[in-house]
Amino acid sequence: MYRTHTCGELRMEHASSEVTLAGWVQKTRELGGMIFVDLRDRYGITQLVFNKDQDADLCDKAKALGREFVIQVKGEVMERTAKNDKMATGNVELIASEMKVLSASKTPPFTIENETDGGEDIRMKYRFLDLRRPAVQENIMLRHRIAQESRSFLNKSGFLEIETPFLIRSTPEGARDFVVPSRMNEGQFYALPQSPQTFKQLLMVAGYDRYYQITRCFRDEDLRADRQPEFTQIDCEIAFVEQEDVLNMFEGLAKHIMKYVHNIDVAEVPRITFAEAMRLYGSDKPDIRFGMTFTELNDVAQNKGFKVFDDAELVVGICAEGCATYTRKQLDALTDFVKRPQIGAKGLVYVKCNEDGTFKSSVDKFFDQEKLKAWADKMGAKAGDLLLVISGVKEKARKQMNELRLEMGNQLGLRKKDDFKFLWVLDFPLLEWAEEEERWVARHHPFTSPKAEDFDKMDTDPGAVRANAYDMVLNGTELGGGSVRIHDRGLQERVFELLGMSKEEAVEKFGFLMGAFEFGAPPHAGLAFGFDRMCALLGGADAIRDFIAFPKNNSGRDVMIDAPSKIDEVQYEELCIRAAPKVEA
Amino acid sequence: MYRTHTCGELRMEHASSEVTLAGWVQKTRELGGMIFVDLRDRYGITQLVFNKDQDADLCDKAKALGREFVIQVKGEVMERTAKNDKMATGNVELIASEMKVLSASKTPPFTIENETDGGEDIRMKYRFLDLRRPAVQENIMLRHRIAQESRSFLNKSGFLEIETPFLIRSTPEGARDFVVPSRMNEGQFYALPQSPQTFKQLLMVAGYDRYYQITRCFRDEDLRADRQPEFTQIDCEIAFVEQEDVLNMFEGLAKHIMKYVHNIDVAEVPRITFAEAMRLYGSDKPDIRFGMTFTELNDVAQNKGFKVFDDAELVVGICAEGCATYTRKQLDALTDFVKRPQIGAKGLVYVKCNEDGTFKSSVDKFFDQEKLKAWADKMGAKAGDLLLVISGVKEKARKQMNELRLEMGNQLGLRKKDDFKFLWVLDFPLLEWAEEEERWVARHHPFTSPKAEDFDKMDTDPGAVRANAYDMVLNGTELGGGSVRIHDRGLQERVFELLGMSKEEAVEKFGFLMGAFEFGAPPHAGLAFGFDRMCALLGGADAIRDFIAFPKNNSGRDVMIDAPSKIDEVQYEELCIRAAPKVEA
User: Counting one residue from A and one from B, how many pairs have CB atoms under 8 Å apart?
Assistant: First the structure.
């Protein structure tokens, strides 16, 4: 060992003892004939002291140290005269008697501090240096803790961690597969799993009863901000359970993680149906850290002569508490916000509920005080509040209002990062209509079971069929989702048919699973958590990239190792493929 | 929940209570107006009783049950009249009052029992049924336990589990990479990692101090028996340590696993150098469950007129205790064994040490009693033992004798599967000569540090340079291996050069790592265990395939899902590749 203690370990009780430390030079400074060096490792920082009077040569060596040099230092632990209570080791310092440079360092291209001067690109290129910053180390250590606590809970609950294969079969359904040419099977390809879905279901058929895996998944999608081509899931499946059992089990997991990682006791997680979530929040992943739920105003706002409302399918409002004081400028900014192309509202109606009991609105021309009062009453507004109203086609108006609600939540500071509000969203629709492909696609995935009471709608009104599907939402972000699966070949065939899959195609792609259902498949259900996202949310951050040791950029590149890259001609030959450059049309 | 208890849970204390079970029908039998059903799940088997006198209809339903039907049964727990002490639930049975078929089953293509009638191929195709066999379930559960205990030990030892990327850069060095065409980066490919080697070293440079991961690795090799294209490693790395620290740490891991998985206390793991291992066992992974070490006989066997020996570089023998009674037939079989082309010895010399103190050998013509006694004395043989001697070129003779020693160990029952003997093999050569490529290749990998005392041989006698490399061997199989790494750019460049890599190529492939070494790289070392192999060995089995939930066959195929497979034309187009069938020369 190059050390007897870590840089975060020394305390008063070590005073007078001889120790050896090793670590990185955080900074050096000279003061009154002494060189002070902050020595850093994963565990903390310890102050080293080199005294000119004691050893001038050693002091000269210390003076020559640059930032990020790796050194080994021997010396005596001493109580500090000027204690630093911001550091765990701040009561002591190490009076160096020997020092050895283990590894020199060029000047790093950015400062290795939480508030670094390095931009995103340079930090990605030198990720091994970026990873040294304490803030990033904390993220990676948080991830470690969440993983271990998840396993601890699942192990105790009787789950088995079972590894499923990475080299599987390409069955593109929704997202694109990454594929891997097989050298031993000419003209054939493996695919990397988008999830271990079919394998975990087979494990249930195989009698493993409770399965989990913290595993990598792959999706070859055009990368939106903060999406990674490879990402990690906590993937789980249970046999002989109903939806209620699954909700309780994974609510237990969420509570366990919050308790043992953050020491926060999470109360019972509330539940809302998809339909309710859309009606009250215009979102299938409502942020319930704050209220400001939607009020539908059709009955009090329509047929009063305001054509925009009268033509609308939905008139919907929110009440922003205490915002009647918003200035013209602030209100204009809100209007601009909802009119941005990404949101696409035609306009925004406001009503100020003045302190004196009067109302001031942007539609005073059409609505007198009494009519505005009816809105305010319906929305439970009081003097000082601001009503914001959007109208239009129901689905669009709700989406727009959702954006506005979240924006108001931000403006009013109601979305605190250290406030953790979990929510179950239930009863998702089984299908959604894919405009481009002009067909129904599975909202969750094709293995999700429809609700028994909606079976009869499968032929007559597929869009109205609800699924035994559920999402766990945290602070307005989907943390995980799952469903009760189909375990009957006939029903599975019927759903494939609904999705426009021919019998042949279904057998070709998923024959192994449907075949398995014929040999005694237990009822089963499961759930997968987005692990990167979970780490980011629990770390109080937005970007998952900061919680992945070696992330890719938005072009799917690892700029540190410069991947992907060209391969040798020999590799092409062995794999029986060749490049076929895109021809511009 | 479909059940109140599992099929392995009921005991006498449950007698008279009403319970619900769910599981698979293992077998049914009719006896004196009753139907007995063995109901199976992951946890065990419970006997169900259907009584004609009580409920004839229910009894008829039970009679109709086939093997592997999934049922749910309600009833009262009763003490059995005829107890079965071979079953954990054998004191009780469930008197069924209600029964529901949750899922019917076709007749399975093979019996779901440890001694199945199904051949390898059919079991691979129906792997979800094979996985139901209790023996296989035990393997998968053993794997789970080993994984959890490994993590438990490493977590307690301050390691962080950190995930490294799967989509990396192709740097073929030794084995072939699996590659993944990048759609977003035309003409470029990712590679799947053969190991997280460079990333874990970068994590050390980044200050993470102690890293581990139980992770999948990929090698596109022609599959020898019991090799898988994807396999799992327990991958570890530690900073600021020397070889001794690593050996102690991972010896601790091995002991922990043996203690907590098998309740076996492993004593200190003995150590042997590579050179010693070759001299005494003719193998770099000696099976030390038994002795029978080699004795070099050149001084007593050469220059006595037997040309075969006189021309040999090495004459080497082993002493098989108590085998002087071997018959002519047995001795001929041993000779045939060593002459098999896979082993390739020219012949085998034997000496029987008779009980009466005389010797009988196959070379009596050249060696009189006195001379044979000299052999026996040198080998520490006693009356009743059998000496077996091979000669030839040193390296080949040792390999041949290694095979013979292992065979004798088998014949004498000295290689017990429940006897676990660990061994460290140290001081491996840094390089080995690759005949085909006519160059030195890294014996471990190119990041392994040469021993400082051998630096001067790097130019003059590269083959003699020893590395700071070590293997952990269990019962004659390599369980894991590792090395102290190079952490200095200059030394790393020199090793790449030794391996015949041009400066440009080295920078192109590993520039990111060498660059990282210039920013303060700590001394570091690590090790990786072959997890599949570890599970198999600890499960007392030879084949890793039985310890992998969904293994591939020897052609790298998953015959259950039929992968790899053809991909769509659209996929080819999007990836900018096309098929280039092999042209026969």
Answer: 360
